[in-house]
Amino acid sequence: MAGVVILMPIVLPAIARASVVTAPVLLGTLAVSSHIPCLTRCLIIAYQGKNNFYSYNAFITAAKSFPSFGTIGDTTGRKREIVAFFAQTSHETTDGPYAWGYCFLREQGSPGDYCTPSSQWPCAPGRKYFGRRPIQISHNYKYGPCGRAIGVNLLNNPDLIATDSVISFKSIIWFWMTPQSLKPSCHDVITGRWQPSNADQAANRLRGFGVITNIINGGLECGYGNDNRVQDRIGFYKR
């Protein structure tokens, strides 16, 4: 793409204890295309300090609560995790080709309340648990444990994910670091800690970026042949 500078994250020794990704490099990973109005509103303005939602400082502040995030393995392995993280979340915050991301804050369209009866994670009256970015946490049974883990009541205040940038980034890093309903964590997959079982190997679920897509949205995207959404995630990763 002419006139577009695309940079990959540079990860130094420890994300929670050192300068990990510089602000210009972080924004550079979210490449610019023809979607200038959205990017201007959500990234360029944020970088200038006028909006500051999906900001470098919010990301770094949130990451400090997860000391293993981006700190496992050698420099190449750490870079791989950060790149995979931003590739997946860039896809989740866009609805276009993989040349932009980190725009939307909430699920688009007219989503339902995503309330599943639960004695452990009861829905609060009038609250809706549709997807909120940057990973589109959805359903009360995800908001509940996420909120408990990061120290906020997301069952009563689900929109904190879309209104508080640090909580927003904490929600996705929590998801990234936490095993999800019979699936390993994205972190364990990308760092090589996850060992595929015989059944996983037979189903071609092997270590790598594809299993992370399966963890995040495999029920809708995996096992159906070529899928534009999957290709979009891969495109971000290859950037």
Automatic annotation (TrEMBL):
InterPro entries (alphabetical): Glyco_hydro_19_cat (IPR000726), Lysozyme-like_dom_sf (IPR023346)
Domain Glycoside hydrolase family 19 catalytic positions = 51-239
The domain of life is Eukaryota
The protein's matches in Pfam families, at most eight in alphabetical order, are given as:
Glyco_hydro_19
Entry's PANTHER family?
CHITIN-BINDING TYPE-1 DOMAIN-CONTAINING PROTEIN, CHITINASE-RELATED
GO molecular function terms attached to this record: chitinase activity
Which processes are annotated in GO (biological process)? cell wall macromolecule catabolic process; chitin catabolic process; defense response
Signal sequence, renumbered to the chain = 1-18
Q: Which Gene3D superfamilies match?
A: 1.10.530.10, Endochitinase, domain 2
Organism this protein belongs to: Solanum commersonii
The job of this chain, per UniProt, is described as: Defense against chitin-containing fungal pathogens.
Q: Which UniProt keywords apply?
A: Carbohydrate metabolism, Chitin degradation, Disulfide bond, Plant defense, Polysaccharide degradation, Signal
Q: What is this protein called?
A: Glycoside hydrolase family 19 catalytic domain-containing protein
